[in-house]
């Protein structure tokens, strides 16, 4: 499970990062609205943990950013505002939870776990194609297909950004833990696996190569 922490208080940001990683979560951290917006655009998150007041914007506005990106991540707002009106506003805007500062980390951890356990359905359905990121499963016309590892993650990322051109660099940054340690040709290998194990047997095209720019999810489109 990948979590984005958006908190401008450096010590709290570090505490959340270290604490969540200790419990097995993959964590990215941001100290500003603009950096969080950028990360949401290139990566898929299961949950966003955002402070309300940021130096360049309001964390609650990240709710709209997630919606615009068609990102189904849950979002929990952290806030020093202890009035009822602020909590109601955040929830009405689409926040999945609202936690007042200061908070107990164990309680926060429990609420994150509950939200991830009962959160949004991450299944992607496009025509007859169904991609289940949580189960790493692909179903086409009631037939399950085998595609695992990085090729599956590349397919999922492109499907979540349907009709958008995604560069190799963006795919590397979104999927590989240490993108600077791998070469862009690993993307070509993953795309080839998708075409061999998914497109060719089903006689469909799922990914279009855009010369010098990247790739685009193009299903449904007959081969």
From TrEMBL:
InterPro entries named in the record: CheY-like_superfamily (IPR011006), OmpR/PhoB-type_DNA-bd (IPR001867), Sig_transdc_resp-reg_C-effctor (IPR016032), Sig_transdc_resp-reg_receiver (IPR001789), WalR-like (IPR039420), WH-like_DNA-bd_sf (IPR036388)
Domain Response regulatory residue range list: 2-116
Annotated DNA-binding residue span(s): 121-219
Domain OmpR/PhoB-type: 121-219
Residue(s) carrying 4-aspartylphosphate: 51
Keywords, in A-Z order: DNA-binding, Phosphoprotein, Transcription, Transcription regulation, Two-component regulatory system
Presence of the UniProt keyword Phosphoprotein in the record: yes
Name of the protein in its database record: Homeostatic response regulator transcription factor HsrA
Organism from which the protein derives: Campylobacter canadensis
Gene symbol of the encoding locus: hsrA
């Amino acid at each position: 499970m990948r979590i984005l922490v958006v908190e401008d208080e450096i010590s709290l940001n570090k505490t959340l990062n270290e604490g969540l990683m200790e419990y097995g979560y993959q964590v990215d951290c941001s100290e500003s609205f603009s950096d969080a917006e950028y990360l949401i655009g290139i990566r898929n998150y299961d949950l966003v943990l955002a402070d309300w007041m940021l130096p360049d914007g309001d964390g609650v506005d990240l709710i709209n950013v997630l919606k615009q990106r068609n990102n189904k991540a849950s979002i929990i707002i952290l806030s020093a505002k202890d009035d009822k009106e602020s909590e109601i506003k955040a929830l009405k805007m689409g926040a999945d939870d609202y936690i007042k500062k200061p908070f107990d980390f164990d309680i926060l951890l429990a609420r994150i776990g509950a939200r991830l356990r009962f959160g949004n359905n991450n299944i992607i359905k496009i025509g007859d194609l169904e991609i289940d990121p949580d189960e790493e499963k692909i179903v086409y016309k009631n037939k399950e297909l085998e595609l695992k590892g990085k090729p599956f993650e590349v397919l999922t990322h492109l499907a979540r950004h349907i009709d958008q051109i995604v560069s190799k660099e963006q795919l590397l940054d979104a999927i590989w833990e240490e993108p600077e340690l791998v070469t862009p040709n690993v993307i070509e290998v993953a795309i080839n696996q998708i075409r061999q194990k998914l497109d060719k047997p089903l006689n469909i095209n799922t990914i279009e190569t855009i010369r010098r720019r990247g790739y685009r999810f193009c299903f449904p489109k007959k081969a």
